[in-house]
Amino acid sequence: MRITQNDEEITILIAEDDDGHASLITSALKEAGLLNPMLRFRDGQEALDFLFQKGPGPHREPGRSYLLLLDIRMPRVDGVQTLAAIKQDPVLKELPVIMLTTTDDPQEIQACYRQGCNCYVTKPVEFNAFTESLNRVGLFLRVVRVPHINGEPE
Amino acid sequence: MRPQPKRAGQWLTLILAVFAAAIGLIGWGYYRHQKSMLVQGAQTALDAIANLKVSEIARWRQERLDDANLILDSRILSSLVKNAFDHPADAAAQEELLDWMAAIQRHSHVGRLVLVDAKLKVRAGIPAGEEWVGPLGSRFAAAALRTNVVLISDLHRSKVSGLVNMDYVVPVAAPREAADPGAIGVMLAEVEPEDFLFPSLQTWPTPSQTGETLLVRREGQEVVYLNELRHQTNTALNLRFSLAGRANLPAAKAALGQTGLVRGLDYRGVPVLAAILPVPDSPWYLVAKQDVEEVYAPLRAQAWMIGAMGALVVLAMVFGVRLLWRTREFEFSLAELEAQRKAELASRASAERFRSFTAAAFEGISVSENGRFVDVSDQYAAMFGYEPWELIGRDIAATVVAPSSRDTVTQAIGSDRETVYEHEVMRKDGTTFTAEVRAKLNNWEGRKLRFSAIRDITARKQAEAERERMLEELARKNKELESVIYVSSHDLRSPLVNIQGFSHRLQTGCAELDRLLAPPQLSPELRAKIEPLLRDRIGPALDFILSSVLKMDTLLSGLLRLSRLGRNALRIETLDMDSLLQSARDSMTFQVEQAGGRLEIGRLPPCRGDSTQVSQVFTNLLDNALKYRSPDRPPVIRITGEVRDGTAIYRVADNGLGIEGRHQEKIWDVFQRLDPNGSVKGEGLGLAIVRRIMDRQDGRAWVESEPGCGSSFFIALPAAAAPSGKEPLDAHRLRAEPSTGNQMSPSGTKPADSICA
Questions:
Q1: For chain B, which ranges sit under pLDDT 50?
Q2: Chain B contacts of A24, Cβ < 8 Å?
Q3: A105 and B502: CB-CB below 8 Å?
Q4: All structural domains of chain A with their residue ranges
Q5: Could you report how far apart the first and last alpha carbons of chain B are, in Å?
Q6: Model ipTM value
């Protein structure tokens, strides 16, 4: 299945510095049946370059929908800073962001909320928590395609 | 002692005054008594004199009347007179008559005798040459002839001679044998009062200067004085007063008929005492009078004497009292001197004691006045490198105070500061050190003295600085440690995620493999080789890895939480423990119910602490109580509280498994669990957290337990005044208050519902 918005496919952006974590996330999502395209960034800077259409890497395509999974701790530009930059941009602030944290430290969570993210998921990312946070960012699963038994798209 | 004499003096003066007044009164009383005595005496005398005189005069009058009657009755005289009248030429008859008349005149106290015939013609007279009759005499003679009785003319002043006399007019009867019984002539006997009457009146029987007798008679509206008076001349029949005008005159009173003892003003206007008596058978009144002044004269002298004596007595008294006073004052001053001497001795002894005190003290002692040394102990002087005598009289601030502290010290001295303070002081050689000073003011004999003790606190300051430094280092190290814990626990989490995640994946992979092995396509030999690998080696290994990971995760979570406690700022406030525990209870309702237990919370006193952390403490304790419950009985947890010496002590008592004595200290350590392999789950951090929190809030946590019975965990925090309206509770009240379902158990006894007795 894919999550869509307005019948459009959403690209899931994952900003996570740890390869292991990133792999786990993508695997978890794939194994749950999500077939949306996923893009991985190694840190906040790469993510911002993509979003603000700068730098050598891939650029955001205007008109496409994205969902950003943002890890809090990253080198160079960390999750909090990235989030701040996004929320300050008039265009990008509509981008749904889910923060990923390793801890349930209330102070960390407060920091997230203060930055304006609406939800977070504790790692390791577990599918139920993930969907709940999806709900929170307002991505309703409008179209749920029944996954093929092998996970192949219909 | 001083004020007393004054009051006594006032009293004495009062007594003296009263006494003097009494004496005065007595004297006056005596005086008056004497006065009245004198008056009485005088009056008695006057009365007696008046009586005497009156009787004399009366007798005299009677004698004269007798004399006259003798003439009247004398037959011889009748025949002689007849004879002489009938024979006027007979010289012998005339001579006989004259002889007889002379004899009468000689023996009858008569002044003049004149004989007139029936025709009122003078026929004879004795003494010779005085043969005349005044007009008054003629009138009387005529009347005598008519009435044939003796007539007496009252005292009168003769118009002829100007003298005062009285006339007895006696008719001469005709001889017996005469045909005409009528009088043949009249004998006029002129009595001169000077002969007897006046002298009699004038003599005063007592040696009085003012006593005199008056003879008065009334003439119409006037009173006439009949005799010559003592104090005035030419008064006989001349001195007269109108009765109306001189009512006070004793003579007037007499003339008006008043008799007896009177007072009045006499003809001189002088106050007199008088005794009035009428002379019987006459129009005369006798007044015996005496000047009042004379009467009182003896009194005057007496009065003087009395007054003098009285004054003398009073003076003597005053003098005597004053003498007594002086003696007393003298005694006072003696006593005072003695007291002074004693006081001096005492003060000297006290000074000695002072010296001993100050010499024995650790601190240096000084006495000052107005910022200058009055006295210093040896220690004091030595502290600053001086000799004691060098400091006395010197200005404190300028001599022993370091320049940096001079203002402080001057201000402290000036404001009479008695509280402890520190300042820099200076030795004689100029070096400075820190000292602690404390002073006490004392008013001694009007001087404001400042006693102060000074202590060298250099060592203490250093120790304090060292301590500060150590504390800082401790705090810093602590912080370091905490961040290390924090960071490490935090960072350690990250690899954990991987381990956990990939282990999981491995597991799923294995599961998939397993599934794939199911179909019989695989060779039995291969299957026999693969299956054990999968099931016995890979599978269990992964299980162990995963469980270890889980454990690590738990441990790290616990560590993180523990270190977080140190990083959070404390907010100390007054906590309403009742509501705090209520929230805790509410959050645990499910667990309690599940355990089939009962949670009882009594009334708890308020305390001072951080709300969140204190909540955490109780949550942990309740958690433990439920976790370590006894399988033999339903868990009963009782929470009580009391205040003791300003500390609020709370008790969480359970009827669970209890803790053995040797474990009771270890339970507080990190990661300690009573039964790590048993049924109870948990990281073993609960009590470590509790202790950490209590340490941070200046509280205490400890346990009392009996294995098999249950445990009581105690939490001590600073007590607080009750928040809004509730009164602070104390143990006594708590014990006394019963309420349904909230039974309080006084500390030391075991909770009910336990197997313990």
A1: 1, 723, 725-755, 757
A2: 497-498, 501-502, 505
A3: no
A4: 4-145
A5: 76
A6: 0.73
